[in-house]
Amino acid sequence: MKVASFLLAFAILATPAGWYLAQYLFWTNQDFASREEFVEMQDQVKALTINFNNMQQQVEILQSRGVNTESSTSVEVEERIDTLADSFSQVALIADRRNVNEGMTNSSSSYLVGIFGLPRAEMTVDCAPMTNPILKDLVQTVDVGPIRVTMLEPAIISLRQVFRNVQIFEPELYARLSSAGSLCVRWIRGSTTSVSTHAFGLSVDLNIDGVLDVLGDGRTQLGLILLADFFKKEGWYWGASFGREDSMHFQVSREKIETWRRLGQIPDGLN
């Protein structure tokens, strides 16, 4: 059936050229077509071949997505093509993950503590309120589109822009986003000396359909890979490049923080 479909499609596409050729061979007084006419017919055949190859590629793409090209109606095919959202939650290996943040710098624990000090005097492994006098007045809890976060005001403004872009260009992905946390004043998991960037209100954890990413396996949901591009454009650093991969984690880059400091949008801290 697949070969028959191709032959039928090619026959339809080739009809104009066949008709044109028949006119010159049977219904004109000329014994042969002129050189110019022959070249024109060659060009038409080439164009038809290109169209046929393009059609064949489209059929193969549809079949790879599980679309039955022989029995589906045009409406059914359209609906299935539009369900790219079905792949957002699929898990895949993150290609070249250590370089996904090229051009940006990690806002590390030591960097943030050096600027602002500890987010609270007594740190533990459990989430606690922020008491840092430099930052606490900037903390807000608001809706930023698909999720609700507690973060510093400049980070909230930036995050809203990220999600506005996602909503415009990837509305299906936008509708399936959920949060696994934002502000959480604590040590980094497994440490009692390094402060999490969540403790400064500069990070957010995201997932697709409420399914958490597996920490440290070098793999993630395809939707998060797509989402990372939107965050990178807004100056956010993706946790996929950490030594222990954490691809549901997005945090404001050092460059973004320095820009906020220069513009007076965030306190200059201890420096």
Please characterize this protein's 3D structure.
This protein is α+β, with helices and mostly antiparallel strands and 271 residues long. It has 2 domains: 2-81; 91-262, Muramoyl-pentapeptide Carboxypeptidase, domain 2 (2-Layer Sandwich), CATH 3.30.1380. Helices cover 42% and strands 13% of the residues. The protein is built from 8 helices and 8 strands. It has helices spanning 2-26, 35-64, 74-81, 109-116, 153-169, 171-175, 222-233, 254-262, and strands spanning 91-93, 139-143, 148-152, 177-181, 203-208, 219-221, 236-238, 249-252. The strands form 3 sheets. A 4-stranded antiparallel β-sheet has the order 4-5-8-7. Helix 1 (2-26) packs antiparallel against helix 2 and helix 5 packs across helix 7. It is globular.
